[in-house]
Design brief:
This protein is an alpha/beta fold. It folds into two domains: 2-229, no CATH class; 247-590 and 599-615, Alkaline Phosphatase, subunit A (3-Layer(aba) Sandwich), CATH 3.40.720.10. The protein has helices spanning 2-26, 36-45, 47-70, 76-105, 113-117, 120-127, 129-153, 165-188, 207-213, 216-229, 241-251, 294-302, 316-325, 339-342, 348-351, 370-376, 401-413, 447-467, 529-536, 592-615, and strands spanning 269-275, 304-310, 356-361, 381-383, 419-424, 476-482, 501-507, 518-520, 524-525, 558-563, 566-571, 574-579, 584-588. Strand 10 and strand 11 form a beta hairpin. The protein is globular.
Length: 616
């Protein structure tokens, strides 16, 4: 019986690889710039997710095998083969649908296909007769392949039932629960803290190779779960589409050109440091908290500080996509988890044509697909914990900030100018991985977080001191921003507007003297950083339609917040936070005469932006 279970896993892996080969043949035109070795790596990097998918598909057949072992009879084989055939047909349908659709869609099959199938007339009009023929051809071919694999692996389904029924029950139950536990670990990807996800199969900057590597069944199932979890149409505010369109157009209709250029040259090196969970309320120069961030405070006094910037959401993957794509956030939705959508929006690096582009993190970039998001958007190097020297001490989630900065500095020294280097810190993330001080500065409920801030701030100061000794320093602009807020002294409510306030600082030798030590108090969000930076270096802001240039004197002031199962709106006239499930206003500081218009602006922006997301 155990031998049959292993053969079952082997069957699925071989069947998945057969689907990859058929996909590659049908879409050969998309692999013209790919070497055979690069193509072959897809079959290596796919193994973990293939094994996870095989385990999921093998769970019920495992139960049937165990029941057959305990209670052998003529019924057993037909039931096993029938259920296996149903699963084979299901997998083949997804494979064949993806093989054909990829030619036009350029992304893997998702549950969005159900929207098309709900309108069969549209499918028949747009698909074309040849596509249906190819679909039927591949479906028949995959069924034939499966038939021969099953025949080869399960020609004789012998389960050694010579033991007495009592022993068969005992051993069968042990095998069942033992393998189900193993299957659970395979599906999860192991006992590590971050579970397996589609980023585990990513290995190339070529998204077609990554799509080939990612298991189609796993991706489709993942898409289905996301679809169910993020279905928020029924909770969206009610506003007429034409009014929504009109209001959003008015919000973004302002003179786009201005002469507020803050850099000394048009192509400075750019270093973007994304701080993990740095809340404005934990930073001395942005709050009443004292002696937490002397190094950042000093940089703020020498740079251009934006003191009314809000995180778009509550998690790191939302923060990163908002910063680099100028794309706000929606309740319950992370665009980085939807490759078929996020590939259609731009990132900052894609506008910096002549730049060397790099992204570094001290932890695991598989988390919420952050790594695959950047790889899909053509960062030349996207690196995480795997590139750190193995002899370094590290925390539970990542390497310490001091080691992250040291490796970042080493990479910057060896990169051709102009460069874009980005780093994502980690020591201020729970469980606050950093070398603990014998005399911690903070005590009390938020001591762990605040002392990690003290450590992270010192690492930042040391990093900048080292940068000042390098020849490229005088040509470099540094951008510091947080990925999201965090509970900090006196601030614990994650659904509060204040919780979302984060730092955004531009600093460096390339900053003009007239902007040093200045404070920009315009209200904006992480999504506005892209347009703000790209205007300074000649980027095309039309490719970032949801991002505002905060240095533009005519720029309107507002920010959309995505809270847990809700949303918020911040403008010069106040703010508003709404919880969708309970249909409750959690915060509303607008004056009575302003409430109606401001809430309509919020609802218009949210619904229009949600439409944009769905239309991607």
């Amino acid at each position: 019986m155990v031998y049959s279970i292993f053969k079952l896993l082997l069957f699925w892996i071989l069947f998945f690889d057969a689907g990859r080969i058929l996909f590659s043949i049908h879409n050969a035109g998309k692999f013209t710039t790919v070497s055979f070795g690069e193509w072959l790596l897809a079959f290596v990097y796919s193994f973990r997710i293939d094994l996870a998918s095989a385990a999921a598909l093998s769970a019920i057949p495992l139960l049937i095998l165990v029941l057959t072992y305990i209670w052998p009879g003529k019924w057993s084989k037909p039931i096993f083969y029938t259920f296996l055939s149903i699963e084979i047909l299901f997998v083949a349908l997804i494979h064949c649908g993806e093989i054909n659709a990829y030619t036009e869609w350029n992304h893997k099959l998702t549950t969005r296909v159900f929207l098309h199938l709900s309108n069969p007339d549209e499918v028949f009009r747009t698909a074309g007769f040849s596509m249906f023929l190819w679909f039927l051809f591949y479906l028949l071919l995959e069924i034939i392949i499966a038939f021969f694999l099953v025949r080869f692996l399960f020609l004789e389904l012998k389960l050694n039932t010579y033991l007495g029924w009592q022993r068969r029950i005992l051993s069968g139950v042990l095998v069942l629960f033992g393998f189900l536990a193993q299957f659970f670990l395979l599906i999860r990807g192991g006992i590590q803290q971050i579970p397996l996800n589609i980023a585990s199969a990513y290995y190339s900057n070529n998204h077609v190779l990554n799509d080939l590597s990612v298991n189609s069944i796993y991706f489709f199932g993942h898409s289905y779960l996301l679809h169910n979890r993020t279905q928020i149409d029924d909770f969206m505010p009610s506003i007429a589409p034409n009014e929504s369109e009109k209001r959003v157009k008015k919000l973004f209709t302002y003179p786009k050109k201005h002469d507020q250029y803050i850099f000394k040259s048009s192509k400075p090196n750019i270093v973007i440091i994304v701080f993990e969970g740095w809340s404005s309320n934990a930073i001395s120069c942005l709050s009443e908290t004292q002696k937490s961030t002397p190094n950042f405070d000093k940089l703020a006094s020498e740079g251009l500080l934006f003191n009314n910037i809000f995180a778009c959401g509550l998690t790191s993957e939302i923060g990163n996509s908002s910063i680099f794509s100028g794309y706000p956030a929606l309740p319950e939705i992370s665009i980085s988890m939807h490759p078929e959508k996020h590939r259609k929006i731009r990132t900052i690096n894609e506008e910096l044509k002549s730049y060397s582009t790099n992204y570094l993190f001290g932890g695991d970039l598989k988390y919420e697909n952050i790594g695959s998001y950047f790889m899909d958007h053509n960062f030349q190097h996207v690196e995480d914990e795997k590139v750190f020297p193995s002899n370094l001490s590290r925390g539970k989630l990542n390497y310490f900030d001091s080691d992250l900065y040291a490796l970042l500095l080493k990479k910057m020294n060896s990169t051709k100018e102009p460069f874009l280097h980005c780093a994502f810190t980690g020591s201020t993330h729970s469980p606050y991985d950093h070398p603990k001080s014998k005399n911690p500065r903070f005590k009390g409920e938020e001591a762990d977080y605040m002392n990690s801030m003290v450590y992270a701030d010192k690492c930042l100061g040391d990093f900048i001191a080292n940068c000042k000794t390098k020849p490229w320093f005088k040509n470099t602009i540094f951008v510091f921003v947080s990925d999201h807020g965090h509970p900090s002294p006196g601030l614990t409510n994650p659904n509060s507007k204040v919780f979302f306030r984060i730092p955004f600082l531009i600093w460096g030798e390339e900053l003009k003297d007239s902007y040093r030590g200045k404070i920009n108090d315009k209200i904006g969000s992480q999504a506005d950083i892209a347009a703000t930076l790209l205007y300074q270096v000649g980027g095309n802001l039309k490719k970032f339609p949801w991002s505002k240039d905060l240095l533009n004197p005519s720029c309107p002031e507002f920010a959309l917040l995505a809270i847990n199962r809700g949303y918020g709106w911040v403008s010069k006239k106040g703010h508003y936070v709404y919880q969708m499930d309970s249909k409750t206003e959690l915060e509303n500081s607008f004056l009575k005469e302003d409430q109606k218009e401001e809430i309509k602006n919020c609802n218009a922006f949210l619904t229009r932006f949600y439409k944009d997301f769905k239309d991607l």
